[in-house]
Design goal:
The protein contains 13 helices and 8 strands. It is α/β, with parallel strands linked by helices.
């Protein structure tokens, strides 16, 4: 028997918002130098501060670049080039990101694959040039490193983060050895497909299955798949979600709201 826990990474184990926001700003300067060259430090600080507020909308890391530019145009009307910006505020981003994203990507001629590659390259360069500061821009939530280190359950990480970055942080920041075949990162398929793969493994057939996420939309996708009815679903209340999303989650009988201390206790 025993338990298997599939864990999201950003927003469940690791608070990476500081690093991802700085990396996105660096990448945006490469992608759109005509807009970002010469930006005042005060404007950069305002953008990075507001990135934490809008972070709940991010599903995959490259979206951080889009948010950085959108915030810049909101802050500096003189450079506005996007039809969605007039009248937009951070609350509007939180409420309408799924509609805003395709509009601005088309207007900016931004391709997902290009942004993913650029975001990864900027992170790789930062790690190569100053690994300690890259690691230091991340933090594991209190208790989570010990929880996975001493877990009595079988642990998998299921994330949209590029695998090499999750592996580096687990190893070098948390000091935990998780076998590479237990980390499913960007490119391994949608999370619902990863969960299907995990439950199909013969060695997991008698285990209780648990999936911990901080994105309500991801959990809703799991609920839509009858094949995944065996999974116990949890929304981490400490992660990148909003009070409105936590309230909505409470309306789903399949989803349990989970506090950080309870999460750490469950793994141990």
């Amino acid at each position: 028997m025993g338990s298997l826990y599939a864990l999201d990474f950003d927003g469940v184990l690791c608070d990476s918002c500081g690093e991802s926001s700085i990396s996105a700003f660096k990448a945006a300067k490469v992608k759109w130098p005509e807009l970002f060259t010469g930006i005042e430090p005060e404007t950069e600080t305002w953008i990075l501060d507001n990135m934490r507020t809008v972070r709940p909308v991010v599903e995959t890391g490259y979206e951080n670049l889009l948010l950085v530019r959108l915030l810049l145009e909101m802050k500096m009307p003189v450079i506005q080039k996007s039809s969605v910006v007039p009248g937009l505020n951070v609350e509007g981003i939180l409420e309408n990101w799924s509609k805003l994203k395709p509009i601005i990507m088309k207007e900016w001629d931004a391709k997902k694959e290009e942004l993913v590659d650029l975001f990864g390259k900027v992170r790789d360069d930062w790690m190569e040039q100053d690994l300690s500061s890259w690691i230091g821009a991340n933090r594991f939530y209190p208790g989570t490193a010990d929880a996975i280190r001493f877990a009595s359950s079988k642990i998998y990480i299921v994330t949209t983060k590029q695998t090499r970055f999750a592996e580096a942080l687990v190893r070098d920041l948390a000091g935990v050895n998780i076998p590479p075949d237990r980390i499913y990162g960007l490119g391994t398929g949608p999370k619902v497909e990863v969960l299907k793969e995990l439950q199909s493994k013969p060695e997991h057939s008698q285990m209780s299955l648990h999936f911990v996420e901080d994105r309500l939309a991801t959990l809703r996708n799991v609920i839509k798949e009858p094949e995944l009815d065996k999974w116990n679903l949890y929304l981490g209340t400490w992660g990148y979600n909003t009070p409105a999303e936590r309230k909505e989650a409470s309306n789903f009988s399949r989803i349990s709201l989970l506090d950080l201390s309870d999460f750490c206790a469950k793994l141990k």
